[in-house]
Amino acid sequence: MAKRKVAIEDGRAALAAARKGETGRTVLATAVRYLLEELAERAPGNSVEVRVPPFGATQCVAGPRHTRGTPPNVIETDPATWIALATGELDWETALADSRVVASGSRADLHGLLPLA
């Protein structure tokens, strides 16, 4: 299990603020990182990299471990989309269909792992 860098209380507070429409950089960064840590905890592994620039990335999902270069299974999205996906305000299929998420690789799928909060 990965060590948390965002205290759970701080993450939940930032997430609540972000869901109420607060868009400050610190709030968004904390909420995004908290949710990435939640994902890594619930789906431990190193086969998929989830990127939410500019705030963070995590490796998750059991499977072949990636160690060098660009990972073969990458998911990338913006902070608002990540928060919406992680909280259930947006479903995975819609985000893919609307090109709000870019997913490459055979394991780059978070369907069934979301929502987190």
From TrEMBL:
InterPro entries: SCP2_sterol-bd_dom_sf (IPR036527), SCP_3 (IPR041629). It comes from the Bacteria. Residues 25-116 form the Bacterial SCP orthologue domain. This is Bacterial SCP orthologue domain-containing protein.
